[in-house]
Amino acid sequence: xxxxxxxxxxxxxxxxxxxxxxxxxxxxxxxxxxxxxxxxxxxxxxxxxxxxxxxxxxxxxxxxxxxxxxxxxxxxxxxxxxxxxxxxxxxxxxxxxxxxxxxxxxxxxxxxxxxxxxxxxxxxxxxxxxxxxxxxxxxxxxxxxxxxxxxxxxxxxxxxxxxxxxxxxxxxxxxxxxxxxxxxxxxxxxxxxxxxxxxxxxxxxxxxxxxxxxxxxxxxxxxxxxxxxxxxxxxxxxxxxxxxxxxxxxxxxxxxxxxxxxxxxx
Length: 266
Prior knowledge:
Blueprint: H1 3-16, E1 24-28, E2 40-46, E3 64-70, E4 73-79, H2 90-93, H3 95-102, E5 107-116, E6 126-135, H4 154-167, E7 171-179, H5 187-196, E8 200-202, H6 206-214, E9 218-228, H7 239-265
Parallel strand pairs: 1-4, 1-5, 5-9, 6-7, 7-8
Antiparallel strand pairs: 2-3, 3-4, 5-8, 6-9
């Protein structure tokens, strides 16, 4: 079965589960799934019940879709994503966003947990993605698909900053470097990324952003800075630290997305 047929298979399964066109889709990164609890009139669908839905084995990715409403608009939260470092192909990593776009969603907010490269940024800080550097060695785009020099929508990103200011949520802006993983970066690699202009680093997001844009959707991105990258503090890095930062920031992160939903759809 081709990648396009796999996307159609997943889209058909989502239709059978009653997931039609939604106004905004939120892809939730490691430790950030608690936002889905804010969704009203919510219905959860485990990935295991959805034909063709890749499922992550990484802790902090619940593996379900939550569909419902926020601020009077239809929203979908994807609690968990699969990663290239788990052995999934780039077409499998991007299958869900392509299928959801095929159902008619034209607004995506993709989120992730990331290591902070800027020394003045402390864990718990939120950052919108102004741009990214794709160092994963993969592209999700097929022959004939258009890439975009500016994949992150300036209007949607400004909505997030406007709502953050109104809600008193500190929100920075920066460049996200996407690496393959699964190992954390070395101090030398972090120095290289800093010289390249990256503000944060992670192991997801960039392929999904490119695939969503190629599918005709508009995209904004948010990173939660869960730790300072290797070589900045001298402390060892761990996934437990990522999860703890997600729990600490859950309220601020969820408040921002909840109050931005209607305007993002607008």
